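Course assignment 3, question 2. Fill in each field.
Student: A.L.
Task: Predict the tertiary structure for the chain below.
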Amino acid sequence: MALTDTAIRAAKPKAAPYKVSDSGGLHLVVNPSGSRLWRLKYRIDGREKLLSIGSYPAVSLAMARAKRDAAKTLLAQGGDPSEAKQDAKRESIETSTNTFRHLAEEYLEKMRREVRAPATLKKTEWLLSLVYGDIGNRPIREITASHVLEALRPIERRGRHETARRARSTIGTVFRYAVATTRADNDPTTALHGALTAPKVTHRAAIIDPSGLGALLRAIENCDGQPTTKAALKLMAILFPRPGELRLAEWTEFEFEKAIWTIPATRAKMRRPHHVPIPKQALAVLQGLREFTGSGTLLFPCLRSISRPISENTLNAALRRLGYSKEEATAHGFRASASTLLNECGLWTEEPALSPDQRPPCPCCGGRMVVIEVFRGVAQPRAPPATRTCSGMRAS
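Answer field:
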C-alpha cells in the first residue's frame, strides 16, 4: 500500500529501527531517535543495493518519489544510482575546493618550494589579492575570459594600467598551473591580449653618452658620502649588476684569485647562478671595501645592523645627493648605460655580463666558462675608457 503524508506523520519511533514501505522499492526508515530517512532498494548485476535519498520532511513524499523515478530511469539506461550519487558528490567537492584562490595559493606554495625571491613572492601575492574579490571563490573551470576582464577593469579604471597588465599575466600563470595539474581546461587570459589599455612605458633613467657618464663617475669619486655607498656606486658603474644583486652581495661569493663574482641562483632573476668577471678596477674597489666590511658577511651592511643590507633606496638617494634627479639617473640605469655604450663601441654585442636571461646564445661559446674567458678580455679593456675620466679610478 502506497504511503501518505498522514501515515508518515503517524509512524512513531520504536525501540529498534523499522521500515514503512511505499512502492517501487522506496521506503522510509523510522529510527528510535525519531528521524525518518528515505531509502531506495534496487538490484543491479544481481546484487541488492540501497540508495539514500534524504530525510523527511526536508525531502517530502513527492520529492522522494521523483528521485526514485529518476533512479529507475538511470537503471534502465545501464547506470548505477549509487555510483552516480558518489560521482556527483566528488564533483561537488572538487568544485568547492578547486577555486581560483585555492589554486593560486597552491601555486604560491610551489614558488616557495622553488625558493623564489621574497620580493617576487610578495609581488605575486599582492597581484593575486587584487582579483580575489571577483574570481577568488569561483571554481576555476567555470572562469571565463569575461570574468577575468571584469576583475581587471576596476584596476584599469584607477589608471593603474601596468598593474592590470601584470595581474593578467599572473592570473595566467595560475591557470597554466591548473591546466598542468588537470584542474582546468584552458587559460582564458590568452584571449585578453589587446583588451586592456596598454601602459605607457617609462624606462629607468640612465646616462647613455660617454661624456655624461664621465661626469657622473667624477661626481662619485669626489663625493664625501659613506665609503661603502661610494664603493657600491663605483661597482655599479664597472660591473653593472642589478642593484638588488649588489646590495645583497656576500664576501663568500667573490673568488679574488679567479676574479669571478658568482651571484647565487636564489638571488639571480632567472634562478640560476650568474658568473660576473671582475676587472682590475672593480678588484681595487673591493680591496678597499674590505677594510670597512670585510670582517662581516655582507659587502654593504646598513649602519644599524651588520646582518642587514643597505636599503633598496640607498643608491638612488646617493645619486640625488650628487645632484642627479630621478629623471636623469638611477641605480638600475647603470645597466642601460653599459648596454648602450658597449654596443655602440662594438667591443661586444651580446652583453654577457647582463646575465643569461638578457643575452642571446653565443654560437661560438659552448660552455659557461668559455663565455667568461671571452668576456674577460672585453671587460678589462672596457673598464678603463669609462673610468679614465675619473682620476681616482685609473687603470693601472
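Instructor remarks: The chain has 14 helices and seven strands. Residues 99 and 138 are 5 Å apart (CA to CA).
Grade: pending
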